[in-house]
């Protein structure tokens, strides 16, 4: 009696020196993919930023908006009492909504402009210091330490007393005083990246320093730089509003949120809207920008 041949599973031949490939990990059932769902706080922050941006960009473009027009006969008009003055008027009869909208544009312009100046300057200085190293690194970081040692308020007092302060001048000054934050971040990342294998391999293959910085360092540095820039926008809004509040920032007749808070403070008990409305816009801007700037960090956790 012959036994039937036994069937066995085919055995795959493995070539010599081949590395077995592990199967890709399969996510457990119910696992969510893609970006994390927005939280309630994130939605509120986004609404804050969107509202203030629309306020600063759209309202000043509407017909009939004049932030300097005075009408003493219509001073201290109540909010929502007249379609032409939805938020009322101030002590000089100027439309509060128009002034808040234009002041938001001014504050955002100064904050964004100063952050762009400081980010670009810090990026260049940080890459030079971190990638080159040596004496150049020590010299640039010493310049940064001296910059941090200069009191911002004292410098702005001197400038305001000599040449005055315009939005452009204030933007440049704040940008030149804040570049060290970006330079130190970029420098620390460049010091770490220049020791990596892919940078050494590119250098050994004959790549120029400019090519290495453009192809390797910038791709790793720019995302972190943008996160820091988002955070610094809120910081610059705080500084600009504080300077305008004490009279060292934007000067009349140009409105600013900090200046409007200072002008409405004497009427806080009788007409609190003159102070609370611009203060609420400052809060919405700072809170919204600060939280949204932290979203990339939280998404990676």
TrEMBL record:
GO CC terms in record: plasma membrane
Subcellular compartments: Cell membrane
Pfam families in the cross-refs: BPD_transp_1
Residue spans crossing the bilayer: 42-62, 106-131, 138-161, 167-186, 225-250, 270-292
PANTHER family on file: D,D-DIPEPTIDE TRANSPORT SYSTEM PERMEASE PROTEIN DDPC-RELATED, OLIGOPEPTIDE TRANSPORT SYSTEM PERMEASE PROTEIN APPC
Record's protein name: ABC transmembrane type-1 domain-containing protein
Span list, region Disordered: 1-35
Entry keyword annotation includes Metal-binding: no
């Amino acid at each position: 009696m012959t036994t039937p041949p036994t069937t066995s599973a085919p055995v795959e031949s493995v070539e010599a020196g081949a590395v077995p490939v592990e199967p890709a990990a399969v996510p457990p059932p119910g696992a969510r993919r893609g970006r994390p769902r927005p939280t309630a706080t994130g939605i509120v922050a986004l609404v804050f930023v969107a509202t203030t941006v629309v306020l600063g960009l759209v309202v000043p473009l509407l017909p009939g908006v004049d932030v300097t027009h005075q009408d003493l006969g219509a001073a201290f008009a109540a909010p929502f009492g007249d379609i032409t003055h939805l938020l009322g008027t101030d002590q000089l009869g100027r439309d509060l909504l128009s002034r808040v909208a234009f002041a938001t544009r001014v504050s955002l312009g100064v904050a964004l402009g100063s952050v762009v100046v400081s980010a670009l300057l810090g990026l260049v200085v940080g890459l030079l210091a971190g990638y080159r190293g040596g004496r150049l690194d020590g010299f640039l970081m010493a310049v940064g330490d001296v910059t941090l040692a200069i009191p911002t308020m004292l410098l702005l007092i001197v400038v305001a007393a000599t040449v005055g302060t315009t939005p452009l001048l204030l933007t440049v000054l704040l940008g030149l005083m804040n570049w060290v934050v970006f330079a130190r971040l970029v420098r620390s990342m460049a010091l770490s990246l220049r020791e990596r294998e892919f940078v050494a391999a590119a250098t050994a293959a004959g790549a120029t320093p400019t090519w290495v910085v453009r192809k390797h360092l910038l791709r790793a540095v720019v995302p972190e730089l943008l996160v820091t820039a988002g955070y610094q926008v809120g910081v610059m809004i705080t500084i600009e509003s504080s300077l305008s509040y004490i009279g060292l920032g934007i000067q009349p007749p140009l409105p600013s949120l900090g200046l409007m808070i200072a002008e409405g403070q004497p009427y806080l008990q009788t007409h609190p809207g003159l102070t609370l409305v611009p203060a609420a816009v400052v809060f919405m801007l700072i809170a919204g920008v600060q939280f949204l700037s932290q979203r990339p960090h939280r998404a990676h956790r």
